[in-house]
Amino acid sequence: MSRGWIHVHVLTMDGEDRTYPDGGILYTEDGTISAVGESGAIRAQAEAEGARLQDGGGKILLPGLVNTHTHLYQELTKGRGSDLSLEEWFPKAMAPVGAALRPRHMEAGVDLGILEALRSGVTTVADYMQHQPVPGLGIAELERAKALGIRMVYGRGYRDIGRPEVVENAESIFADVDDLRARYETGDGMMTLWLAPAASWGLSDSLMRQTRAYAGKTGTPIMMHLFETGSDNTGSQERFGTDAIDWFEEAGLLGPDLLAVHSVALGEKELDAYRRHGVRVSYNPVSNMYLASGVAPVRRLLDLGLTVGLGTDGAGSNNSNDMLETMKAGALLQKAFSRDPRSLTAHETLRMATIEGAKALGLDKLVGSLEAGKRADLVLYDPMASVKTCPVCGSAEAALVYTGDCRGVDTVVVNGRVLLSGGKFTQADEEAILARAREMARDLADCLE
């Protein structure tokens, strides 16, 4: 039986940015949106079909948020490595953790990260699993994502330069990607496998080129940390005597199937290369502030017509997976940096967190907006459940971006499946997951001693 809501303020985020202040939605049992529109029209269709409707009581209905970059295992590292730059933080705080990771840690971190994501209205998460110290971590993660019901883009991370515990050869990397794709990729887009080479300083020139060759042969997209700081250029100059963007271009890395994560240290040369190759970008403002990496030139990227999505980054360099917080920080950082209050508006920010994020992950035909025929990934937000959001005196978009609060996230639906209802998880034991995360965080810390 179809179901849905009426009397909700609908933000479709579709190509025409249609809104319905007194609107509704219907979706089918298989998780397909069948209608979006005014409450009266939705009620009439529901009555004709015998669908089950709920009164939304004026809550805000929007597409599920899309987090284009995180590291879920880092949920077990909150607060570790505070007040360091990226160049200090990674070797001191994250590299040892990455070498010590085992499936039990992965499962606990992934569970907690998914719960935090869902509670902040995220229905799609792109997880960049950059460390692979033992076999089977991808299976451990994807099984937990499958059980908890979130939509996941899994970036199978790898490197061939660095600590011996995490270095791999190309044959084993691509064999694992083949295996994970065969096991987990689904026609409804619930799980998608990507290549996730760590960063330029973790890759040989040979592995960079093999990455592009595998991507071209199999149609597998690539996500990679690019220009998070000036270290890409420094390393490339030392190794090859050329700017990093020249190396990337000559090796064939750049293309519309590349998600360039961070993209902070971009000059005109890099911006032009991004434009020519149609590179997509993941903007991670909280992490960039936390590590003092700088400010991504988001306005320039948007003006060049490039797709920019929003990401939290991992809790190791953010301390949360809260996309509502990230929306506010992302908009305000651009305003402060440019001294222009319209350099990134609430509307643009919300689109980056929904439909533009879906485009960045190649999922915009399925999710990212509320339209008939798309998958039912959606969020019901109750401003009256949060002292921060209440009252809504301006637009619903501004309320979500500037006063959004996890306490206001009432209901989360992924692929038609209700995962959060009335602020409570329907498929997960939150108390048990929190307790297990605390236990495994201690266990992981003991492994580092």
Tags for this model:
449 residues, alpha/beta, Urease, subunit C, domain 1, TIM Barrel, 9-stranded mixed β-sheet, 4-stranded parallel β-sheet, globular
Total separate domains: 2
Q: What's the helical proportion of residues?
A: 25-40%
Q: What are the low-pLDDT stretches, counting only 5+ consecutive residues below 50? A: none
Structural class: alpha/beta
Tally of contiguous helical segments: 16
Second-tier CATH architecture of the largest domain: Alpha-Beta Barrel
The radius of gyration is: 21 Å
Describe this structure in words.
This protein is of the alpha/beta class and 449 residues long. It has two domains: 62 residues, Urease, subunit C, domain 1 (Roll); 296 residues, Metal-dependent hydrolases (TIM Barrel, Alpha-Beta Barrel), CATH 3.20.20. It is 40% helix and 21% strand. It has 16 helices and 17 strands. The strands form three sheets. Strands 1, 2, 3, 4, 5, 14, 15, 16 and 17 form a nine-stranded mixed beta sheet that branches. It has a four-stranded parallel beta sheet with strand order 6-7-8-9. α3 packs parallel to α4, α3 crosses α16 and α13 crosses α15. The longest helix has 19 residues. It is globular. The model has no long low-confidence stretch (mean pLDDT 97).
Task: Describe the structure concisely for a colleague.
With 449 residues, the chain is α/β, with parallel strands linked by helices. The protein is built from 16 helices and 17 strands.
